[in-house]
């Protein structure tokens, strides 16, 4: 069985291209997930977490595939979510974000999978699913291919591409950790810093637009509120003819707290299609990818 949630789209969710920003989709997924657990609780008396207030559920990994741009509409976008894996101490949920015509034809904007784990908040450690939690989730189980183990990577610590992550009070959730959605914002800000550094001095190059095609984020340890910033390091991991991959990690000194691998597509806003970046900009990307000094500006 799948749970369907009608999610309102806000004007503030849009980016410079007039599309729903990639970060906001993850917020939509969270709303759908919580609505599913809330609906089941109201119907059956089951809880989304254990009865103990120290029990919670945290996100371990997001895999998000963006399939089509979503613009602003006054009617909500639909999200279906269901359980694809149920283990002793973790479970996975999948989602589809779409609009549906009166004839039942879907325009799908995003597909995603989230791996979650029950968590003991007072002891800062994972726990096993309770019998009640398992029963609540089993009714939403559908068969699915197992998740692929992410390929490990490490990020070169180039000071020019460092982004200081300042945690705001509003970033923190009821668990007193930075909410999983906000990590996407941190990684987005770090990518903007990287792209700005690569484009510095290229005054004759047309404005370069990109859209996110795939974003995979692994949550390794909680980020908490503090005055001192954390470090987010980024690198260009791959350069294609019309796309690139950026890898980032948020760290507290030598301790890595989260990693992201994001595929970005160069986008022509006039034709609404993928395009090749300017040659001089692509050379900058290749230099960054190979660890070479950036080509001088003529």
Characterise the protein shown here:
This protein is α+β, with helices and mostly antiparallel strands. It has two domains: 1-149, Hotdog Thioesterase (Thiol Ester Dehydrase, Chain A, Roll), CATH 3.10.129.10; 150-298, Hotdog Thioesterase (Thiol Ester Dehydrase, Chain A). It has helices spanning 22-44, 131-138, 180-199, 279-290, and strands at 3-7, 55-66, 77-86, 91-100, 106-120, 125-126, 163-165, 210-219, 230-239, 243-252, 255-268, 273-274. The termini are far apart. It is an enzyme of class 3 (hydrolase). This is Acyl-CoA thioester hydrolase. It comes from Nocardioides thalensis.
How many domains make up the 3D coordinates? 2
CATH top level class name of the largest domain? Alpha Beta
| CATH architecture tag of the largest domain | Roll
Mean pLDDT: 90
Taken in chain order, the helices and strands follow as: EHEEEEEHEHEEEEEH
Helix segment tally: 4
Query: Which parts are unreliable, with pLDDT below 50 for 5 consecutive residues or more?
Result: none
Distance between the termini: 60 Å
The oligomeric state of the chains shown is single chain
Share of helical residues: 10-25%
Can you tell me the CATH topology of the largest domain?
A: Thiol Ester Dehydrase, Chain A
What structural class results from the helix and strand content?
alpha+beta
Largest sheet: 12 strands, antiparallel
Portion in strands = 25-35%
Shape: globular
Overall strand count: 12
Q: What is the name of the CATH superfamily of the largest domain?
A: Hotdog Thioesterase
Using only CA atoms, what is the Rg? 20 Å
